[in-house]
Amino acid sequence: MADRKAILEVQNATLKFGGLTALNEVSFDIKEGEILGLIGPNGAGKTTCFNAMTGVYQLTSGQIRFDGQPLARMKRNKITKLGIARTFQNIRLFKAMTVLENVMVGADAHSKVSFVEALFRLPRHRRTEAESIERAKELLDLVGIKARHDELASNLSYGDQRRLEIARAMATNPKLLCLDEPAAGFNPAEKQRLMELIRKVRDNGYTVLLIEHDMRLVMGVTDRIVVLEFGRKIAEGTPEEIRDNPAVIAAYLGVDEEDAS
Ligand SMILES: Nc1ncnc2c1ncn2[C@@H]1O[C@H](COP(=O)(O)OP(=O)(O)OP(=O)(O)O)[C@@H](O)[C@H]1O
């Protein structure tokens, strides 16, 4: 893993909201093909970090590079085109569209067909449309809901809606897939299935960044973990290293480091 290329480099990232420093000199890399966990107690800065990576917020100082390119002042759709896709803590699907259409909307962000070609349904558009239906079905198959492609997204169970969100994010062909608390509201059996899905996604060639509160899931599925507390990185390492790290235990238990060790 150590000799793999870093797809994302966060370098001394600092982000302030007025007087509050939500990210404080945070640095870490995500290597191609790994599953990296970003964890920390509530308010630690995880979502802020995601938002800085996806162009929602601009850093106050420091930089984030993706595939070698600095992301500063880059528009969100440009970042998506570069290859970062994300899901959200709160599910954001088009409920009145079918499952398949939801995935195709994701793929459309990357369509090479012009508006005129699409409007007049020219041959290139029809060919591309057939290809994108095929690709969308492959993604639905990967996340395990292909059989339901014709149903309205609103008819899916909560767990399947989360799976659909993942398929939709993958439809942009991202080099990096960011999952923001994908197990929120899941029962243990659903969490188990989600772990299997995240591994499968990685085995299909994706790099995954995972924000998640469920420790069993994070420990069970990630290759490496970065821990934030009050906007600072307090630890980084393999799940085994993080599990035994006194600073991490203290952060989660809300006690002094000496008491936790
Ligand atoms: N838009 C904003 N304006 C002002 N403060 C913000 C904003 N977004 C986040 N914060 C603050 O920044 C800090 C980090 O928040 P963030 O949401 O990144 O934490 P988190 O680790 O994702 O927490 P959680 O696990 O609860 O989602 C918090 O103190 C939060 O209140």
UniProtKB/TrEMBL annotation:
Keywords: ATP-binding, Nucleotide-binding, Transport
Alphabetical list of Gene3D superfamilies matching this protein: P-loop containing nucleotide triphosphate hydrolases
An MF annotation (GO) of this entry: ATP binding
ABC transporter domain segment(s): 8-255
SUPFAM superfamilies tied to this protein: P-loop containing nucleoside triphosphate hydrolases
InterPro entries reported in the protein's UniProt record: AAA+_ATPase, ABC_AA/LPS_Transport, ABC_transporter-like_ATP-bd, ABC_transporter-like_CS, BCA_ABC_TP_C, P-loop_NTPase
Protein name per the record: ABC transporter ATP-binding protein
Natural source organism: Nocardioides fonticola
